[in-house]
Design brief:
With 270 residues, this protein is an alpha+beta fold. The model has no long low-confidence stretch (mean pLDDT 81). The longest helix is centred in the N-terminal third of the chain and has 56 residues. The two termini are 37 Å apart. The protein is elongated. It has seven helices and seven strands. The relative contact order is 0.11.
């Protein structure tokens, strides 16, 4: 029996070509937006890092002066240890920033989520402390995820800054990493603040482009455009992941991200 294949008819409607062209333009604009937001994130971190380096430099100079003034071995040893600790911290920070600047490859690779979180928290340590935010880390071992590390760091920075802005009087922030219990092929990150919360009627809109619960940027110039969470959602979905939010006014907000575990070559062959 012969099977007749139906060949799809070519559309002669010029509107179809216009729609296809518009879709392609939208896709290119979204890519440009992702890139520009990534540059903004790096710029914001550079500003935060500059302040952190200034603090480290001040600490180093003060202990160097103390070591020069005092001749007893105990004081000098203390000064040298403080200078060494500050220098090691500076080296770690610059390593993370250089990594962000260099790693601009579009592809995905096996990525350590725990290291990403630790790097981001290191970069934001001064800013969170400045606003009296205490970070509670609950980082469990998880398998590597398949991700673009730069983009996921961008998402984490955005969510942590949002959490800081949601707690204007300071407070507690919980950062949790764990294997996903009901979906074993995913790792789960939860960023939970105990700040002002989001009204119930606004929750369905917070991932919409240009929608913001804020009145505008804060005193540091961050937030208020409405692009942040929309871009976060797009990045996570492009990673075949999921992002959700739970919030209550006066009780705080929790963002949950799920990212797929990276399969090994042996697992792919099975």
């Amino acid at each position: 029996m012969l099977v007749k294949w139906k060949v799809p008819k070519m559309s002669n409607d010029p509107r179809d070509a216009e729609i296809a062209e518009l879709k392609e333009r939208i896709r290119r604009l979204e890519d440009m937006l992702t890139e520009s937001q990534s540059l903004i994130a790096v710029g914001e971190l550079a500003g935060t890092t500059a302040h952190e380096f200034n603090n480290i430099l001040t600490l180093t100079i003060n202990y160097a002066k103390m070591g020069l003034r005092r001749t007893d071995n105990e004081t000098r040893e203390k000064a040298f240890n403080k200078i060494l600790d500050a220098s090691n911290k500076a080296a770690k920070i610059i390593g993370v920033v250089l990594g962000l600047a260099r790693n601009r490859k579009p592809g995905k690779e096996r990525t350590d989520l725990c290291k990403l979180l630790e790097d981001v928290l290191l970069l934001l340590e001064r800013e969170l402390a400045k606003y009296r935010i205490t970070v509670e880390r609950k980082l469990e071992d998880t398998q590597l995820v398949l991700a673009n590390g730069n983009q996921i760091q961008q998402v984490l920075v955005n969510l942590l800054i949002n959490a800081r802005q949601a707690s204007p009087k300071g407070g507690r922030l919980v950062v949790r990493l764990r294997p996903c219990k009901d979906s074993p092929h995913y790792a789960e990150v939860v960023i939970r603040d105990y700040g002002v919360g989001i009204p119930k009627e606004k929750l369905p809109k917070i991932f919409d482009s240009f929608y913001s619960t804020k009145q505008g940027p804060d005193e540091t110039g961050k937030g208020g455009s409405g692009l942040g969470l929309a871009l976060c959602k797009r990045i996570i979905e492009e990673h075949s992941g999921k992002i959700k939010v739970e919030s209550a006014v006066g009780k705080g907000t929790a963002f949950t991200i799920r990212l797929p575990i990276a399969q090994t070559e042996k697992e792919k062959e099975q």
